[in-house]
Amino acid sequence: MKKPTLVLLVIFLLPVVVLGLFVSREKPHVFSELSVAEAKAKAVEQEKFLLIDVTADWCQPCKAMERTTWVDPDVISWIKLNAIAIQVDVDKQQEEAKELNIQAMPTIIVFKGGRELDRVVGYQDATDLLAWLNR
Question: Can you tell me whether residue 125 is helix, strand or coil?
Answer without folding.
Answer: coil
